[in-house]
Every structure is written in C-alpha cells, then in structure tokens.
Amino acid sequence: MRRLRRAKIVATLGPASSDRATIAKLFQAGADVFRINMSHTAHDKMRELVATIRSVEKEFARPIGILVDLQGPKLRLGTFAGGSAMLAKGGTFTLDNDKTAGDQTRVYLPHPEILEATEPGQTLLLDDGKVRLTTVETSHNKIVTRVEVGGKLSDRKGISLPETTIPFSALADKDRSDLEAALVEGIDWIALSFIQRPEDIAEAKKITRGRALIMAKIEKPQAVTRLAEILDATDALMVARGDLGVELPLERVPGIQKQITRAARRAGKPVVVATQMLESMITSPVPTRAEVSDVATAIFEGADAVMLSAESAAGQYPEEAVSMMNRIAEEVEGDPTYRSIIMAQRDAPEATGADAIADAARQIAETLDLPAIVCWTFSGSTALRVARERSQSSVIAISPNLSTGRRLSLVWGVHCVVALDARDQDDMVERACRTAFKEGFAKAGQRIIIVAGVPLGTPGATNMARIAFVGGETANDT
User: What sign for the dihedral angle of Cα 272, 304, 296, 221?
Assistant: First the structure.
C-alpha cells in the first residue's frame, strides 16, 4: 500500500478505535503509526491493541509503527473540605505538607520536591492554568503565594511550575511498569512526557537498551530552553502543544513549534506535531478552516508526522479525521509553493560520510530527475539521513529488520519494505530496481539511485551510491 504523501500520520487509539475493524479502516484511511496512551490504558488492553495492530500489519503486508506514550509524573494538589474551594484574586493561598483537607486559604501539596525547589517570584499554575499564583514565601514545609488569577479549585487538580526545574525523574513508578510491559510486547517508539533535561532521556535509554526508540515530548519551558541538549540525546521529538500552551503564553507556541521542527530536521531526527489538530472532529464530521490551516502549516514546515489524539481515540468520526488529515497532506505537498518552502529550509550536510552521500544522492536524483532513491538500511540510519534531505524523489527503505521498517514508518517520505539482506552488490542493485518497479515508484527503462553501506549489513556505514536502470525484472548499472 503506497501513500501518495510524504508526511506521516499518527492516530491515537481509544474507546472509539480499539476493535480490529476500525484499526484496519484507520490504516487504510492513512494512519502510519498508532499511538497508545498509557494515561488511559491498562497493560492487558495495551497488549490486546498491540496484537490487533500486528494482525492488521500482517494482513496488509506493510510495516506499522506503534508509539507508546507514557503518562509521566503527574503533579496534583490534595483534597478540599467539601470537594472544592474558591480562590479570590489578590488573596493569599498556601500549599503545604499538612494532609488535612484544604479550604480557600490552603491545601495539601503531596510533592515535597516542589516545596524544596520553588523560589519567591516564581509562577504556579493550577488546573491547566485556570488559576495562577505567584510565590511570595517558601520554606521546607510550605509555599505561600499571592493569587493572580482566581477561580474555583476542586480535589486533586494538576499543578504546573513553568519557571521551576523540579529534581524528580521523568519516569514515575507507573511509567517504569508501563515501559517494561511495552518493551515485552516489542513496541517501536516510547514517548516520554514532561521531560526537563537530557538526563531524563538517558534514564529511559538505560531501560530500553535499544529495544525501542525514544521520543521526547517538548511540553515544558525547561525542555525548550535545553532543546539542543535534549535533541542530541533523543531519537525523535514531539511538539506537545497542549501542556506547552499551559506553561507558556499561547502566542509563543507557534514560533516554538517552528523552532523545534527546524531543529529536528537539521539533526535528521523525526519530529511529530501534536494536540488539537482537528479537535472539532471529535463531534463534527468536518474540521474548521483554522484546523485545516494548522495541519497544513505543519506539513509546509516539513514535519515528519502530524498526530490525532482524542479525534481518533474518543471522537465520533475517527476514520473521517484520519482521511481528512491524509487529504490535507496530499493537497499541501502538491501545492506549487511547497517545494520552494521545503528547499529553503535545507541545511548543509553534516561533515560525515553518511550525510555527504545522502546529500549527493539527493542532488543526483534531482539533476537526473530520478523517480526514487532506494536505501539499503540495517538500522535505519541510512534512510534517516536521506529523509533529512527532503528529496523530491521518492525514498524507499529496504531492510532485513522488521523492527527497522516499523520505526521508519514515522519518518518523512520513507516507504519501508522488509526483505532479506542482499547477498552482494549485484544482488543489492537488482533487488533495489525490482522493488522500485514492483512498489510502483519506477517504470521499466527509468533509472534510480541506490544508497547503501558496504560491507552490507554494517549499521551506520553509509558510503556508497550507484545509479541503475530499472528493467522490470532485471537491472543494469549506468
């Protein structure tokens, strides 16, 4: 099944999309990767969803990626007498270590690390930013604040600290349990929530040990500040605009989205744009014009993937939402201005052999108007470097590893084919041509360029490019 677009689609599974028939329809409609949100999914349900996705994958004979999204540390207040309290603007409100029920003047804060880390003058956001406090006084057992924006607070509402780096792990006990369970099932991508620093990525990688790739969700100001370090440590990024829009002024989010997208592309690492992309399609069969424009902007920026959350997980029109996103991407990529925008964002290749080969392959393909660049890739690194160039030619990745094919299903423009490794260079050229012909990317008599690492099967050793004629059943070097 060949997609007619380069950007990929991530669809979240949930109550509206957990059965096999719906998952198959979502894949046919355009979903390339399925997301399982562990905030709302028990281990048994996760295993069931993975098994169902693998069954659909087998039916369509196409690699499908699975992204497991960990909940991350949830910071919440205690309870109130009567279940809620009204905070008045200008008043004083205290968060402390007293476990008794709160009122309009105080509440229990079951996170001693916050009490230790917060300093006077810092902002605290409660209930997704609906209530805003400024710290006036701190000690080891309480934080005294001034209410800047008042409102009603009820039991166990969330607390965010956009100006405070809190010394806790990005992996809570639940996350560690969820991560281990997901790794047993052989999932492809792990999304880490609420990370603040590159050490959070290193901690997760010690557990995964290469069994899954790590995606860092950028949703805290601390992560934006240390984006370059986090990008070095992670395998991919997600622009998690929901919480990012809570902890930062909303008007800053579009600019930060562009910064993250372009930084990831420069590094040759996938980036996913997420949250409220087609939000109105939870209850409506068609999106708003603004939502269509939002999705289109992410595509124009060259994002590897765009993501549906509640639209596909709990909405009334999950298949229609995926289909709409698919059509938007196809239309954008066919727009006359699309290529010029993508090309304007292209950076010089890094000073490595792999990047030089990838850049040369792109230039050769464009100069000779070749329909496809075929990458023989064991680990996926060759395809990633070629995808970074955002070539006008189609990119086909041939890998002997099914796990590599599944991981590359997230990457811009990469059409994955899982096959036995080539025996030698002649076999590599012949099978690359045959695959390009069979998959519908090249016609008999056309030429393609083949990129690989020699000796074959050596991860990360991209060092060769060859041009060959496609003959339908046979190939000839030029």
Answer: positive
What's this model's pTM, rounded to 2 decimal places? 0.93
- For the annotated catalytic residues, the residue numbers are 35, 76, 217, 275
Task: Report DSSP letters for 316-357, one per residue.
Answer: S-HHHHHHHHHHHHHHHHTSTTHHHHHHHTPPPPPSSHHHHH
pLDDT for the residue numbered 462? 83
Q: Max CA-CA distance within the chain?
A: 80
The DSSP H or E segment spanning 434 is helix 425-438
**Residue 431, both tokens:** 């099978």
Q: What CATH number was assigned to the domain covering residues 81-160?
A: 2.40.33.10
Residue 128: its pLDDT value, please?
A: 87
Q: Output the 3-class SS for 127-142.
A: CCCCEEEEEEEECCCE
3-state secondary structure 171-208: CCHHHHHHHHHHHHCCCCEEEECCCCCHHHHHHHHHHH
Q: Where are the domains of the chain?
A: 8-72+171-335, 81-160, 353-477
Distance CA 239, CA 166 (A): 21
Q: pLDDT value at position 20? A: 98
- Give the helix, strand, coil percentages of the chain, each rounded to 5: 40, 25, 35
Looking at residue 10, its pLDDT comes to 98
Angle between helix axes 20-29 and 43-60 (nearest 10 degrees) is 50
CATH level 3 topology of 8-72+171-335: TIM Barrel (3.20.20)
Residue type, 43: H
CB contact set of 47 (below 8 Å; sequence gap of 6+) = 181, 185
The highest-level CATH class for domain 353-477 is: alpha beta
Q: What is the mean pLDDT of each successive set of 10 residues along the chain, which is 478 residues long?
A: 94 97 98 97 98 98 97 92 95 96 96 93 94 95 96 94 88 95 98 95 96 97 96 98 92 96 95 97 98 98 97 98 98 96 88 90 96 95 94 96 97 96 91 95 96 76 90 60
**For residue 168, what pLDDT is reported?**
81
